[in-house]
Amino acid sequence: MSYTLISELPGLGLAAIILDKLGRKISMEIMFVAGFVLLLPLVVHQNDILTTTSLFGARMFISASFIVACIYAPEAYPTNIRATGVGIATAVGQTGGIVCPLVAVSLVSSCNQTLAVMLFEAMILVSGLCVVLLPLETKGRELTDEVE
């Protein structure tokens, strides 16, 4: 078990603190930017302390953004399609969670750490841009029963 797993606990606390203060979209945007910035130094080889610290922080922010997404998704869909929408979103997210370690281990074991980090940076960038394009902020919004 990796000790960077502990980083998910502060991520959970961070999400709980800023979620209702800033809103769902801006919280996810901030967390993606922070995760992106923390992984950036790892494009080139760093010492063990900086690598561990960067990975710990990036994992914390990316885990927090996933928590916010899990709260955002049910709020974005009306009741009559909520289960389907959240189910599809969860399936896509879990597929990424399955593929990610396989790709990372494959790239790092073939001495392509830079390529692995750049791939993760690209995914964070795409995810962050998708958040920016989300059509609505669900903070303080009532859940709807039907598609309007």
Keywords:
148 residues, mainly alpha, 75% helix, elongated
Overall shape: elongated
User: Helix share of residues?
Assistant: over 70%
Beta content: under 5%
The low-pLDDT segments are none
Give the mean pLDDT.
Answer: 83
Q: What characterizes the major β-sheet?
A: none
Count of strand segments: 0
Spatial gap, N to C terminus: 47 Å
User: What is the N-to-C order of secondary-structure elements (H for helix, E for strand)?
Assistant: HHHHH
How many distinct helices? 5
Structural class given helices, strands, pairing? Answer: mainly alpha
Radius of gyration (CA) equals 17 Å
Describe the structure.
The mean pLDDT is 83. The protein has 148 residues and is mainly α. It has five helices and no strands. The chain is elongated. The protein has helices at residues 8-22, 24-39, 48-76, 79-109, 113-132.
Characterize this entry briefly.
The chain has 148 residues and is mostly helical. 75% of the residues lie in helices and 0% in strands.
List the helices and strands and how they pair.
Blueprint (H helix, E strand, L loop, with lengths): L7 H15 L1 H16 L8 H29 L2 H31 L3 H20 L16
Helix pairs in contact: 1-2, 1-3, 2-3, 2-5, 3-4, 4-5
